[in-house]
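look at this record:
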Amino acid sequence: MSTASLETLCAKPDNTAAVEAIAARTDDLPVTVVEPRPAWQFVNVAELWRCRELLYFLVWRDIKVRYKQTVLGAAWAVIQPLAIMLVFALFLGRLAALPSGDLPYPLFVFAGLLPWTFFAGAVTSSSQSIVGNQTLVTKVYFPRLIIPMSAVGVGLVDLGVALAMLAVMLLGYGVLPAWGLLLLPVVLLLLVVAALGVGTLLAALTVAYRDFRHVVPFLVQVWMFATACIYLEADAVVGPQWQAVLPLNPAYGLVNNFRQAVTGRPLDFHALAVSGAMSVALLVAGCAYFHRVERSFADII
């Protein structure tokens, strides 16, 4: 039935025929039921999966923006930890003579700085991600959690590039990984979980309190020295009484076990378990707070 016919029927006092005609046309239309999300559901995995292409395009966009009009391009992902490694190797390895076990100190530092650089960069980027995408947040609906996830995804791409340099250094120093390398994907997964948990929490806090834009870089710098990136034994710096407390810092156990895995050294399973549990707890806490306040992002951003 045409639109004109429907208008004619609706104009008649007895519009029963019009109602029946409209009902017949709408029977075949899909029905969308809008329901509130359960209070216990911090992460809508099905919704995130439906928007996986958006996550891919946000990661690709951020990578292109980061290396746009740069001469070295993705090589900057290697230059940053390599430059820090050279500074530490000169001042701490030679002058301060910090111990590195049976590993060459440059390799020891570089293997620890790679996971830390990823963690620190992912936390810093994701903490600013919601504010940095305010135009996108205020104009269209999509799962807001995708934004800090994309910031972590960009860090993973940089980490993948830097791992190639680590492989070259391992071959150059004649250091071969052992069976612990098989657990490297688990360590990397927990590192992503920790970075996403902290970054998601800070992203939500930064929307409401812009002070975190200045606090986060300072906290990340302090956090590095609480993590065993540049020294072999943490108790040599903070004392043996703190040895049981250090794995509560998720970066400590994960960074240390990453280095142990790639250099063929025994893993610290206690630190890995404790830091892994803390990583999961941070992800749950971060997603819970993010879920609680994300509805107000468009209003206060």
Remarks:
- The chain has a mean pLDDT of 78.
- The longest helix spans residues 146-173.
- The CA atoms of residues 36 and 217 lie 37 Å apart.
